[in-house]
Specification:
Blueprint: H1 2-37, E1 39-53, E2 59-62, E3 67-78, E4 81-91, E5 110-117, E6 120-128, H2 132-135, H3 150-154, E7 162-166, E8 169-171, E9 174-182, E10 189-195, E11 213-220, E12 224-232, E13 238-248, E14 251-261, E15 268-280, E16 283-294, E17 297-309, E18 314-324, E19 332-342
Antiparallel strand pairs: 1-2, 1-3, 1-19, 3-4, 4-5, 5-6, 6-9, 7-8, 9-10, 10-11, 11-12, 12-13, 13-14, 14-15, 15-16, 16-17, 17-18, 18-19
């Protein structure tokens, strides 16, 4: 009888130990899972390719829009604070080479690390300046199509964000060695700032230029968007930009004004662009116009396009652009067909 009782006690002890181990495992998992959920990393990008006739009449097969690959993520630090990072490179799909065959850095598009909270988002590294990160919203092609985008050819004509940051060549859009700030939204308004604490070193010269900075004030509602921006690069070139966009039903109309000038206003360029989009089911129709006043000459740009969304990620598109410039050698017509897949 005593042996039976001891046997039962041993079984009960084993059961208690088994239950304790199970509870211990569940406790470890319950604490580990939230910790794992606090971090998030994603891989995204756009692959774009097409066949087109360039403005000089040459047949081309390659990128019409910009292909890119990005790795981004954040870590929840608690108390509403997050650490963020983004690494993004741009490349030509037809050759597999980075843009401009290696003239630009590998992480050309963006390489930043930052902190985000109720105060907004602060990043350090290389990224689009405050003006360039917002202006694309006011062009039917998002300043992103080498055939049809008026913005691509006429905005910020004389003011690269940095004249030397791409291995000694100009960079339109991105600020290196920068500090970037995006404010929270207040009454529909957001403020975007960017600046570099470093003076630009001019290649093959001991001379150092100034510091670049940029600011953009934006407003967004369901139907109306607006933007006022100013940028000065390290060479002293300046750019002023203003834009409006109005949405009604399936349509949207937009307009932008850009005034760029080199240091001491030695040269100036004024551009006025207009655009419209209209959605019919899976098809979005686009139209654009740009008029640029470059010193004493006037340059005109006309464009049409259509995007067909095969899915949420894949788009077929057709683009047509016409340059009617003061110098006949700069004029021409370009058209093409392309496919883009976002992931």
């Amino acid at each position: 009888m005593e042996e039976v009782i001891c046997f039962q006690k041993r079984n009960i002890c084993r059961m208690h130990r088994s239950h304790l181990l199970s509870l211990g495992c569940l406790t470890i998992l319950s604490t580990a899972l939230p910790a794992a959920a606090q971090s998030h990393v994603s891989i995204s990008g756009l692959l774009d390719g097409g066949i087109y006739r360039s403005f000089d009449g040459t047949g081309q097969a390659g990128t019409i829009q910009r292909s890119h690959l990005a790795i981004a993520g954040y870590e929840d630090l608690g108390g509403g604070l997050k650490a963020s990072f983004r690494l993004s490179t741009r490349f030509d799909l037809d050759t597999g080479l980075t843009e401009d065959h290696g003239k630009k850095p590998f992480w050309h598009d963006e390489s930043t690390v930052g902190l985000q909270g109720s105060f907004g988002h602060v990043r350090l590294g290389r990224a689009l300046s405050a003006m360039w990160s917002q202006d694309w919203k006011f062009d039917p092609w998002g300043n992103f199509n080498r055939i049809a985008s008026p913005a691509w050819y006429q905005w910020h004509y004389l003011t690269p964000t940095n004249r030397y940051s791409n291995n000694g060549t100009a960079e339109y859009g991105r600020m290196a060695n920068g500090i970037f700030y995006d404010s929270p939204t207040l009454g529909g308004f957001t403020l975007h700032l960017s600046a570099s604490p470093e003076r630009t070193e001019v290649p093959l010269s001991l001379r150092r230029e100034g510091r670049g900075y940029s600011a953009s004030l934006n407003y967004d509602s369901d139907s109306l968007s607006g933007m006022l921006a100013f940028e000065r690069n390290s060479s002293g070139d300046k750019d002023s930009f203003a834009a409006l966009k109005y949405r009604f039903g399936a349509a949207a109309v937009m307009g932008a004004w850009d005034y760029s000038r080199t240091a001491q206003n030695a040269s100036t360029a004024k551009a006025l662009t207009l655009g419209a989009t209209y959605q019919i089911g899976a098809t979005t129709l686009k139209a654009g116009y740009g008029r640029q006043r470059l010193q004493a000459q006037s340059n005109h740009f006309y464009s049409l396009g259509a995007d067909y969304a095969m899915s949420k990620r894949t788009t077929l598109y057709a683009s047509l652009g016409r340059k009617s410039y003061a110098h006949r050698a700069d004029s021409g017509t370009s058209f093409g067909l392309g496919v883009a897949h976002a992931f």
